[in-house]
Design goal:
Blueprint: H1 11-25, E1 30-35, H2 46-53, E2 58-64, E3 67-72, E4 76-81, E5 86-92, E6 101-107, E7 111-117, E8 123-129, E9 136-138, H3 160-168, H4 174-179, H5 189-198, H6 212-231, E10 271-275, E11 278-282, H7 291-304, H8 313-318, H9 336-370
Antiparallel strand pairs: 1-6, 2-3, 3-4, 4-8, 5-7, 6-7, 8-9, 10-11
Helix pairs in contact: 1-6, 3-6, 5-6
The structure holds zinc ion.
Length: 371
């Protein structure tokens, strides 16, 4: 069993699933739908979904944000959100089902596309496209505040200038902003942490205060990590698997789930805090927080960092050694020990300069008395 990350599939993993499915389902005509867990359907209406897809031929597959999209010949599009444990595979219809298959789309050639989802968070919807290659409309779902996806970070027409303009319009912190699908499509916990580390930006930095240089570095970091991850077929994450097998990007991750290990850039320990309910990994030494953000960030940390024995302590302890909890101390910069050592050095410097000044004064007095 390869090393697997506790995480959800993000852009690279979903892109890999969409690409793997393409040769398997393109050209297939849908003959029927089976559903054993109605909430897997966004509409909750099996008859409506079936009426919308039966008789349609799948033209191809694509990805939008974290959705796998099956494009139909009538402009419709089946959208599949894998969430935590969703898997898609194509098998002969005669193959035995397992109890975790929530939905199966039967093709007229005797095969089925099965959606297996242990934890039942995955969702399948039926949307429509605004013309060929256009934006998806309709049943996409997501949080109740959903107002549409932000730009695709790997889209060639999206550049650093547009990225900074979007950042400047934001008041939140960098990490949750990057993960907001309305801000940027497809970025989740793993690649947000990696990109922020690469760009040397603290996850609790205010998004709207980034200077052009910072925003440019972050843009290049986001795009770089996602492009590399797509090339490597994504990371192996819990219960996720692509139809043609897992990716290898987890071997290239430098901070995600590496709390306590030395930062590859400076050697200080990687810290882990919880931001917006999500584990966040970073180096507080080379991802400094500007003074203006410290008070607000400290308040967020006090509210959100689970302490051993606290409300979340038991849950994280069960995750095993990979989830070794570090105290929030030092998350904003130096730890108390590091600060103490630095303070000592500063105190000695002051003492030495006072001593030197006293000597100078004494020497000056000596000179004036001699004249
Ligand atoms: Zn570092």
């Amino acid at each position: 069993m390869p090393y697997r990350l506790d995480a959800m599939p993000e852009l690279p993993e979903v892109e890999t699933v969409a690409r793997d499915l393409r040769p398997l389902v393109s050209g297939a005509t849908i003959a029927g739908v089976r559903c054993s867990w109605l909430r897997t359907l966004r509409s909750g209406d099996l008859d409506a979904f079936t009426a919308g897809v039966v008789g349609r031929t799948i033209r191809g597959t694509s990805r939008r944000a974290k959705l796998v999209v099956l494009d139909l010949d009538d402009g419709g599009a089946i959208t599949i959100h894998l969430k935590m444990t969703g898997q898609l595979f194509v098998v002969p219809a005669a193959d035995p089902d397992d109890p975790y298959v929530r939905l199966a789309i039967a093709f007229d050639d005797g095969r089925e596309l099965r959606f297996r989802d242990i934890r039942k968070f995955g969702r399948v919807g039926l949307a429509r496209r605004d013309g060929p290659g256009g934006e998806l409309r309709g049943e996409l779902g997501g949080p109740r505040t959903f107002r549409g996806f932000g730009p695709e970070p790997l889209d060639g027409s999206f550049g650093p200038r547009a990225f900074r303009a979007r950042l400047l319009a934001r008041r939140g912190r960098l990490k949750p902003t990057l993960m907001d699908q309305g801000f940027l499509a497809g970025v989740g916990n793993i690649y947000a942490d990696e990109a922020l580390w690469t760009a040397r930006l603290h996850p609790l930095r205010t998004a709207g205060t980034l200077r052009p240089g910072d925003a440019g570095r972050l843009f290049r970091a986001v795009r770089g990590i996602l492009a590399e991850a797509v090339e490597r077929r994504g990371s192996s994450v819990d219960d996720y698997t692509a139809p043609e097998g897992d990716g290898s990007m987890q071997e290239r991750l430098l901070v995600y789930q590496r709390a306590g290990q030395p930062c590859p850039r400076c050697g200080c320990p990687i810290r882990r805090i919880v931001v917006g309910g999500r584990a966040t990994h970073f180096c507080s030494w080379c991802q400094r927080l500007p003074a203006a953000d410290r008070a607000a960030a400290a308040a967020i940390l006090r509210a959100m960092t689970p302490r051993p024995g606290g409300a979340h302590g038991g849950a994280t302890a069960r995750r095993g050694p990979r989830w070794t909890e570090l105290e929030g101390d030092g998350a904003l910069g130096r730890t108390r020990d590091e600060a103490h050592a630095a303070g000592e050095r500063a105190r000695l410097r002051v003492e030495r300069s006072r001593h030197a000044a006293a000597i100078r004064r004494a020497a000056a007095r000596g000179r004036s008395e001699a004249t």
